[in-house]
Design brief:
The complex is a heterodimer of chains A (about 375) and B (about 475). Chain A has about 375 residues and is of the alpha/beta class. Chain A folds into two domains: about 5-235, Rossmann fold (3-Layer(aba) Sandwich); about 235-370, Cytochrome-c3 hydrogenase, C-terminal domain (Cytochrome-c3 Hydrogenase, Chain A, domain 2). Chain A is about 40% helix and about 10% strand. Chain A contains 14 helices and seven strands. Chain A has a five-stranded parallel beta sheet, with helices on both faces. A two-stranded antiparallel sheet of chain A has the order 4-5. In chain A, β4 (about 140) and β5 (about 145) form a beta hairpin. In chain A, α2 packs across α3 (about 45-55), α5 (about 80-90) crosses α9 and α13 (about 325-340) runs antiparallel to α14 (about 345-370). Chain B has about 475 residues and is an alpha+beta fold. In chain B, about 40% of the residues lie in helices and about 15% in strands. Chain B has 17 helices and 16 strands. Chain B has helices at about 40-45, 55, 65-80, 85-115, 130-135, 140-160, 180-200, 205-210, 215-220, 225-235, 330-335, 340-350, 350-375, 425-430, 440-445, 460-465, 470-475; strands at about 5-10, 20-25, 30-35, 170, 175, 250, 255, 260-265, 265-270, 270-275, 280-285, 320, 325-330, 395-400, 405-415, 415-425. In chain B, the strands form six sheets. Chain B has a four-stranded mixed beta sheet. Chain B is globular. The chains are: A alpha/beta (about 375), B alpha+beta (about 475). Chains A and B meet through α4, α5, α6 and β4 of A and α1, α2, α6 and β5 of B.
């Protein structure tokens, strides 16, 4: 496709950035940032720069189904102002319901135009999902059920990004009884590569990281068995949680207003789902690396896991950890630590042994994931 | 007499989906029908769930008003328990909520509303070049500045609430994080940076100078910053004569603190204010695709009519207070709180101009409030108390979201949620007709708007609809 075009007419990422007033220095800084965000070494910075200077810009169509727009809200607040600026200008969001200028028929025409012009070359980013009940009548966009718009836009897309828990898994609107039969994107679009970026919403830097990777390297990042980018969803929140030492030491918050809450102890007993949730919240964090829910004293609700909305109450502790024996021991140890200070050292040792067993079990299941 | 019918939508640059059917006679809107085409059924999903799950699920109704939803749910649960937030917890909740409302107002002004002034249709107007440079969608310099300033002020939510959107920190008894003295200093410095943004970009003057404007004329005469650019455009396009409201305003009162609400609750009509009697609310279903009879939200239910039978035309129910429609939002809040310039605007009649000006007034006042709240934080005090929910009971949580009055009505039976009803601000403003055929506020506001012969997305209609800052995902939920 590219070879057939007149070279002078190819608009590269770099061209777009320059036309947005971004300096060469900022551009190089951006390439370095991207490399580090994606966990790539400094040696890859020139490669990223070269790719951006020579590759034609990949257009992105961003559509909204049944959703709350929290993904867009997260996206436009990505950490580095430069990264946000560059990514926004780079993808130009050729079509985006929430941010674009056009309205009405002009907006629909803009989308058709992008599809026609970039047939087979654009990325379709989907926020929200199609409700299938009653022929899709619960979400009407431009006079037609959203599911039709989704299928039409996906037909000529190179790849599809499922933003957030809605597009990836269904999210809260799919909660029992799922009144509208909200259905994740991959159950409707079955003939395109789909990358799931779950979370409610996903972390801004994860979103910009994923999209930058795809635009820069022109391929999907490595995915785990569930179709999530492994670089961001490879570890449990619990693994890198700054409160983890308190878990290991058997120091738990027992009530919202106890002293342990103020001391920042582990929230496991308050229902924290960190031990079963794969996401980057405890490493990348939120609002420009500032914090994440556990840091605000509230447990993780597991919003990047399939079905998090129907897994029983959010304030009950995780119960499917029993294979590691943690459930029982957290109880005993919590009480022991609170009551008998002298016994704490011995108890701690016992937990550490458990912890390494747990680590092993976890490792083997992770490596299975990677193989699969 | 020429007649035609026109469907305007999708609107874009609104939160969620919206479609409006217009009947046009002789170049003017004769009747308007607002359709909220997105239904998810949150009220149905809540049934049978653990009461505390409301704090996690209902915020996900909306990605831009999630703190409002969680504040309403927390308040309703607190009422059921007969306990509320500690005074410092209420203060921290108000800070979280105030930051979100502030962000929503700025997003509306810069990204959703003013972008229409950059349209080519206004080419040749004396202000068009400047409007294009500032407000062109996704590119304008004001838009970039706003997105950046918003990300900065949301650090406060990050510090107190861990993440935004869908912050989890607000609980019936307070907030889950007691801010440290260091956090307080950080929040204060974030607020002073934000003040700088407001004073250099939006107002071009100290926020106090704008907050203290005492008449509608003083607002119109404001010439500095982007606010001044808006005043100039508003005068040229006569936005004061565009999009009248029902003249009835409702506010549940914003930011419940230990002693009172920072912006007073009440209703206002024809120069007289009165207390809100939430018992007199009914949701009328005559023109909504819903089964059942009109009911108070505590007795209401949600049974969608999947056949979508006429004469209904929207998923939105029609809330009425004392049998009448009410306009709600920043303008209503400022009128009911007795701000002199807002009262003056109300006396002249609501309009596109009045709604946007009311929002700008509130931005200035909220900045001042936020600063005083952060200064009043006492890190050593209690920010949360444990509450005991009874197995059975019912309660209402009334708060003010950026777009107006928001209520959650919850009933519990045997420790589970047995009924859950929500009325969001845009449910009031974008409600369909009621049994007596009375239109909702935006439907009424559109009547009389001029529509050019060739126009299929009439600009006047765009301005009127967007002046309400619709949040369609909240509307039907």
């Amino acid at each position: 496709m590219a070879e057939e075009m007149d070279l002078a007419q190819i608009e590269t990422f770099y061209d777009v950035m320059r036309s947005q007033g971004i300096t060469r220095r900022s551009f190089m800084k951006y390439c370095a940032l991207t490399a580090s965000a994606l966990g790539l070494g400094p040696a890859l910075v020139p490669k990223i720069a070269h790719a951006m200077e020579t590759k034609p810009r990949t257009p992105v169509i961003w559509v909204h189904g049944l959703e709350c727009t929290c993904c867009s809200e997260s996206f436009i607040r990505s950490a580095h102002p430069l990264a946000k600026d560059v990514v926004l200008s780079m993808i130009s969001l050729d079509y985006d319901d929430t941010l674009m200028a056009a309205a009405g028929h002009a907006a629909e025409a803009a989308m058709m135009d992008t599809i026609e012009r970039y047939k087979g070359n654009y990325i379709l980013a989907v926020e929200g999902n199609p409700p299938l009940n009653e022929d899709g009548m619960f979400c009407i966009s431009g006079g037609k059920p959203f599911v039709e718009k989704l299928k039409m836009a996906a037909k000529d897309a190179k790849a599809v990004i499922s933003w957030g828990a809605c597009a990836s898994y269904g999210c809260v609107q799919a909660a029992k009884p799922n009144p509208t039969q909200a259905t994740p994107v991959h159950k409707v679009i079955t003939d395109k590569p789909i990358i799931k970026v779950p979370g409610c919403p996903p972390i801004a830097e994860v979103m910009t990281g994923v999209i930058t990777y795809m635009l820069t390297f022109d391929r999907l990042p490595e995915l785990d068995r569930q179709g999530r980018p492994a670089m961001f969803y490879g570890q449990r929140i619990h693994d890198k949680c700054y409160r983890r030492p308190h878990f290991d030491a058997g120091q738990f918050v027992e009530k919202w207003d106890d002293d342990n809450a103020r001391k920042g102890y582990c929230l496991y007993k308050m229902g924290c789902k960190g031990p079963t949730t794969y996401n980057a919240c405890s490493t990348i964090r939120w609002n420009e690396g500032l914090s994440f829910p556990i840091q605000s004293g509230h447990g993780c609700i597991g919003c990047s896991e399939d079905g998090f909305w129907d897994h029983g109450t959010f304030y009950d502790r995780v119960t499917d950890l029993t294979q590691f024996g943690v459930e029982r021991n957290a109880d005993q140890i919590g009480m022991a630590a609170a009551g008998v200070v002298g016994g704490a050292v011995a108890v701690h040792a016992a937990v550490s042994a458990l912890k390494s067993a747990q680590h092993k079990a976890q490792k083997s299941s992770t490596s299975q994931n990677e193989e699969a | 007499m020429t007649k035609r019918s026109l469907i305007v939508g999708p609107f874009n640059r609104v939160e969620g989906d919206l479609e409006i059917r217009l009947e046009i006679a002789d170049g003017h809107v004769a009747a308007a029908y607002a359709n909220a085409p997105l239904f998810r059924g949150f009220e149905m999903m809540m049934l049978g769930k653990d009461p505390m799950d409301a704090l996690t699920i209902t915020p996900r109704i909306c990605g831009i008003c999630s703190i409002s939803q969680s504040a309403a749910a927390a308040r309703a649960l607190g009422q059921i328990a007969g306990q509320g937030q500690t005074s410092q917890g209420a203060l921290a909740s108000a800070i979280l909520h105030g930051v979100e409302n502030m962000c929503d107002h700025l997003t509306h002004f810069n990204l959703f509303f003013c972008a229409d002034f950059a349209r080519p249709a206004y080419h040749g107007r004396s202000w068009h070049d400047r409007a294009q440079a500032r407000f062109t969608a996704m590119e304008g310099s004001a838009i970039r500045a706003c997105v950046e300033a918003r990300a900065e002020i949301l650090h406060i939510v990050g510090l107190l609430g861990g993440k935004w959107p869908h912050t989890l920190a607000i609980q019936p008894g307070g907030v889950t994080r007691a801010p440290s003295a260091r956090d307080r200093i950080r929040m204060a410095s974030t607020l002073s940076a934000f003040r700088r943004y407001l004073e250099t970009t939006l107002f071009g003057a100290p926020v106090e100078a704008f907050a203290e404007l005492s008449s509608a004329q003083a607002l119109r005469d404001w010439s500095r910053g982007d606010a001044g650019l808006f005043m100039e455009i508003a005068a040229d396009l006569d936005l004061s004569a565009m999009g009248p409201g029902p003249g009835r305003y409702l506010s549940f009162g914003a930011y419940p603190l230990a002693d009172s609400r920072a912006f007073a609750p009440g209703i206002w009509q024809g120069g007289a204010s009165a207390p809100v009697n939430s018992a007199a609310i009914r949701e009328d279903l005559s023109h909504a695709w819903m089964h059942g009879a009109a009911a108070h939200p505590a007795q209401g239910a949600t049974h969608p009519d999947e056949d979508m039978k006429a004469p209904a035309y929207s998923w939105c129910k029609a809330p009425r207070l004392n049998g009448q429609s009410y306009e709600t939002g920043a303008l209503a809040r400022q009128i009911i709180d007795g701000h002199p310039a807002a009262l003056d605007l109300a006396q002249q009649g609501a309009s596109v101009f009045a709604r946007v000006a009311g929002r700008l007034l509130e931005v200035a006042r909220t900045q001042i409030l936020l600063e005083s709240w952060v200064a009043a934080l006492k890190p050593e005090e209690r920010f949360i108390q444990e509450i005991q929910l009874p197995k059975t009971g019912s309660g209402e949580g009334l708060v003010e979201a950026a777009r107006g009055a928001l209520g959650h009505w919850i009933s519990l039976r045997e420790g589970k949620i047995s009924a859950y009803q929500i009325i969001a601000p845009t449910t009031w403003n974008f409600s369909p007709r009621d049994e007596s055929g009375c239109p909702g506020p935006v439907e009424a506001a559109l009547v009389g708007a001029p529509v050019g012969a060739g126009e299929d997305t009439p600009l006047t209609v765009q301005h009127i609809v967007r002046s309400f800052d619709p949040c369609m995902v909240c509307t039907v939920h």
